[in-house]
C-alpha cells in the first residue's frame, strides 16, 4: 500500500458523513469528546493509532480502509493482506474447502470482495458449463455472469425479481464499503437490458418468505435458496472480503436433479473456479 495523499482528518470526516453521522453522534458512540473529534477532522489534532482504529470500528470501515487511514495518520497498517495461496492462510483455505465440499452436490462458490470467482465445487458447472468464453475469462465476475444477456440471464425464470435482488444487494454493499469498483460494477449491471417489472410473486410458501432462484436447466426448472457464509472475525484484509455463496435446493425435484447430475459427472475432483 502507498501512503494516501489526503489528510487523516479528511478521510475520517468523509467516512462519518458516508455513514450519516454527526460529530456528536460519532463522539458519543466512540467515547471521545466532540471537540477533540472536530480537531482531528480539521487537522488541528493528530489522532493516535488507537483512536483511529476506534473511530474506524464505529464507522464500520473495511479493514483495507482502516489501513489507509492509519497510513494517512503516519502509522503502520494494522491488518495484513496475504494472498489466499500464502502459507499463513492455509487454515482459511482448508475451512473453505470443507464448506465447498460439504455442499456438494449443490452448487457453492467462493468470491472475493468484488464478486470475482476464487474457487468452487464441481456442481457450479451447472451455471458455467455453457457460458461464453468472454464471461469466463479470469477474473470471472459472478454477478456479470449471472445478469449478462449472454450469460445466465436467459435461463433465470424469475429474472426481474432476481435481478432486482442482486442489484439492491450490490448497491448496499458498494455504499457500505464506499468502494468505487463495486459502484462501477453496479452501473454496468444496471445498464443491461431490463427484463421489465417483477411479476406478482408466486403464491407458494417459499416465495412468501424469500426470493428463490428459479433456473432452467435443459427442460427442467430448478429452484434454489441462496445462502452466504462469511468469516466472523477476520483480521486479514483478504479474508475479510471472502464469502461463500451456496445454492441449496428448494424442493424435492431440484434435490433429485442435482444428485442425478452429480452421478453423471466424471468424478468430483477439485474446485472449478479460478483465482
UniProtKB/TrEMBL annotation:
Pfam hit, one: MLTR_LBD
Source organism of the structure: Micromonospora tarensis
SUPFAM superfamilies the UniProt entry points to: lambda repressor-like DNA-binding domains
Protein name: Helix-turn-helix transcriptional regulator
PANTHER family per UniProt: BLL4672 PROTEIN-RELATED, BLL5781 PROTEIN
Domain HTH cro/C1-type: residue ranges: 12-66
Amino acid at each position: 500500500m502507498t501512503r494516501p495523499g489526503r489528510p487523516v482528518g479528511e478521510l475520517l470526516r468523509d467516512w462519518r458523513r458516508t455513514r450519516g453521522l454527526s460529530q456528536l453522534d460519532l463522539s458519543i458512540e466512540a467515547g471521545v469528546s466532540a471537540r477533540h473529534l472536530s480537531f482531528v477532522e480539521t487537522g488541528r489534532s493528530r489522532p493516535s493509532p488507537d483512536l483511529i482504529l476506534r473511530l474506524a470500528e464505529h464507522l464500520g470501515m473495511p479493514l483495507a480502509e482502516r489501513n489507509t487511514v492509519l497510513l494517512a495518520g503516519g502509522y503502520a497498517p494494522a491488518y495484513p493482506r496475504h494472498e489466499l495461496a500464502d502459507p499463513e492462510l492455509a487454515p482459511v483455505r482448508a475451512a473453505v474447502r470443507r464448506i465447498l465440499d460439504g455442499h456438494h452436490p449443490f452448487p457453492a462458490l467462493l468470491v472475493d470482495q468484488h464478486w470475482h470467482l476464487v474457487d468452487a465445487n464441481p456442481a457450479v458447472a451447472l451455471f458455467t458449463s455453457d457460458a461464453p468464453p468472454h464471461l469466463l475469462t479470469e477474473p470471472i465476475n459472478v454477478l456479470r455472469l449471472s445478469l449478462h444477456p449472454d450469460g445466465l440471464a436467459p435461463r433465470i425464470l424469475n429474472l426481474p425479481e432476481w435481478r432486482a435482488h442482486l442489484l439492491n444487494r450490490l448497491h448496499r454493499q458498494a455504499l457500505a464499503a464506499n468502494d468505487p469498483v463495486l459502484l462501477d460494477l453496479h452501473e454496468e449491471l444496471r445498464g443491461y437490458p431490463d427484463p421489465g417489472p417483477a411479476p406478482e410473486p408466486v403464491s407458494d410458501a417459499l416465495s412468501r418468505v424469500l426470493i428463490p432462484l428459479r433456473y432452467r436447466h435443459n427442460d427442467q426448472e430448478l429452484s434454489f435458496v441462496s445462502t452466504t457464509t462469511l468469516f466472523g472475525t477476520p483480521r486479514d484484509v483478504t479474508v475479510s472480503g471472502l464469502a461463500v455463496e451456496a445454492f441449496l435446493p428448494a424442493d424435492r425435484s431440484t434435490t433429485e436433479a442435482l444428485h442425478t447430475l452429480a452421478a453423471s459427472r466424471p468424478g468430483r475432483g477439485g474446485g472449478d473456479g479460478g483465482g
